[in-house]
Amino acid sequence: MSSLENELIRVVSKPTGIPAPENFQLEKQVVPELEAGQLLIRNEWLSVDPAMRGWLADANNYASVRVGDVMRSLCVGTVIKSTTDAFMEGDRVMGWFGWQHYAAIKPAAVVQKITATDLPASLYLGVLGLNGVTAATALDKLGAPKAGETVAVSTAAGGVGSCVGQLAKALGCRTIGLTGSPEKLRTCLEEFNYDHVINYKTDDIDAALKTQCPDGIDVYFDNTAGAISDAVMQHLAIGARVIVCGTASIPSWDPPPVGPRVNRILLTRRARMQGFILFDHKDTYPTYVKQLEDLIRAGKMNYREDVTEGLHTAPGAIGELYRGDNLGKRLIRL
Amino acid sequence: MSSLENELIRVVSKPTGIPAPENFQLEKQVVPELEAGQLLIRNEWLSVDPAMRGWLADANNYASVRVGDVMRSLCVGTVIKSTTDAFMEGDRVMGWFGWQHYAAIKPAAVVQKITATDLPASLYLGVLGLNGVTAATALDKLGAPKAGETVAVSTAAGGVGSCVGQLAKALGCRTIGLTGSPEKLRTCLEEFNYDHVINYKTDDIDAALKTQCPDGIDVYFDNTAGAISDAVMQHLAIGARVIVCGTASIPSWDPPPVGPRVNRILLTRRARMQGFILFDHKDTYPTYVKQLEDLIRAGKMNYREDVTEGLHTAPGAIGELYRGDNLGKRLIRL
């Protein structure tokens, strides 16, 4: 094994806002010998997620990454050497293997073994991974939408948002998608089955919501937190549930940006606004993966992947996400 | 009956911010003959509540009061004439009788018949009325505090806040009260059993919370919504519940004032922020009245009343509430 050469992306500085290429460095290294109890993984797919900005920020994050660490990431790979009975050579696994070609890890870093052979393995980083399971868990546990209710999604074409829209639609909800380009609008309607779409860059959001949601919004799944949300919040129905899943439109929280206070809306609409982090819901992860696998097999869950080739595309990938360049789950194939 | 003279307070204009005396007018009128199914009530106690500002505001309120109406208010009075079997002359009742001496009402305007004879009737407008039941219902249903948790209350000495603090204490929580004068601080400690108090006008709230709540705040019962809340929100524990019960420190919501965005706090702390209006919880009203009656009888629920004499003191009373002049439930005795 010691002749294998690893390439990895190391964090070399903390970003002040959105992580940029200069916060990372590509390094070459010999793959170390395995310690007892470790597995050696050959990565095939690396994930790029909006949450990475939070992991890299200094302040109180639930999954901090420090300067000097290999960049934290979910990956799909194959076990090529095992010193434990838990996994065998040849097992396909998804887990915390980092932005690198080879990872020597403990079994606890594996999130799940991939047993389905009828679905592409890369899906376990997107629609069947963090994105899909975030969408399914948060929508079900925090949003609890009922058939006939109106569900609005603020990053409607994104990795999480596109799942939310289709999950809500499968439950019999009316779905309203907010997104930022004509191409994304079209994808939302044609592939992700939204009932209505709004271009937040060119439409009058307030007027559009007045027309499309005359009875208000029952569930608002929010990944943005800025001006888009300010407009949507004005249209909450009585008893609405707002899922705070991301804050993509806020470039920096230090100092905290100001915006319209939400207290009076929450009070008069008896609405609930709640933060969601998937790591709190590990116990139900397999349940929601299964729900999503079944929806994909039934043709009720479409997805898009946006793939770049090679580890060298990783350092710029988080910034591209925040610029909204991608259409679907952002992945890196090795 | 037609010889009885009524005095009433009519709403003559909409306030732009906090209701002021010029928005009201005292009128004299002959008490009308009862229609079939009505009751005639002689009011003894009138309530003054912060919620009245919302009722009088133009925008989308859940209980709007229009120009020309007798000012909406909960009152305690005695049935002096009944044309229905539901109530008898002499019954003590609490309900929506308005700021006036006599009210001809339908039985549906009665919130409850007062049957306890060992407790003062005025309590059914305060600690056993809207305030106490708001505190008990919201704390239980939205806050769900567990023994050992830390509960912070932003209007700690007020009608609702003083009940919240004592209810939380009775459940075995640590209670932190925020209030605005040395006299109120003393009352909070001596009468309302808070474990710690903070003077939001003179103390450094952030530093005080850092010292007094090193593990964060599990339940924040908020009646203020402004700078006090901005400071408290920074100290939420993981899984915190924020009860949005009032917005007393915001003089006007038109246009909506700006403040620090809360999304990132809610996200990283997986916290929940939820609006509460008692009218949604009519079915459980008697349950919480009984809980509070029992706590009073057990000596675990102290209260203060702040009483002025005569209907002419009503028009200025809402403004006095918002200036924080009162110490305890604001009442008018007729």
Structural class of chain A: alpha/beta
Tell me the CATH superfamily of the largest domain in chain A: Medium-chain alcohol dehydrogenases, catalytic domain
Proportion in helices of chain A: 10-25%
Biggest sheet of chain A, open or closed, and with what strands and sense? 7 strands, mixed
User: What overall form of chain A do the CA principal axes indicate?
Assistant: globular
* Euclidean distance between termini CA atoms of chain A: 19 Å
Instruction: Tally the beta strands of chain A.
Output: 16
Q: Could you name the ranges of chain A where pLDDT drops below 50 across 5 or more consecutive residues?
A: none
Beta-strand proportion of chain A: 25-35%
The most extensive interface between chains reads: A-B, 36 and 36 residues
Question: How are the SSEs placed, and which strands pair?
Answer:
The structure is a homodimer of 334-residue chains.
Chain A: E1 5-11, E2 24-30, E3 39-47, H1 51-56, E4 74-82, E5 92-96, E6 102-105, E7 110-113, H2 130-143, E8 150-153, H3 159-170, E9 174-179, H4 182-190, E10 196-199, H5 205-212, E11 217-222, H6 227-233, E12 236-244, E13 258-260, H7 263-268, E14 272-275, H8 285-297, E15 305-309, H9 317-322, E16 329-333
Parallel strand pairs in A: 8-9, 8-11, 9-10, 11-12, 12-14, 15-16
Antiparallel strand pairs in A: 1-2, 3-4, 3-6, 3-16, 4-5, 5-7
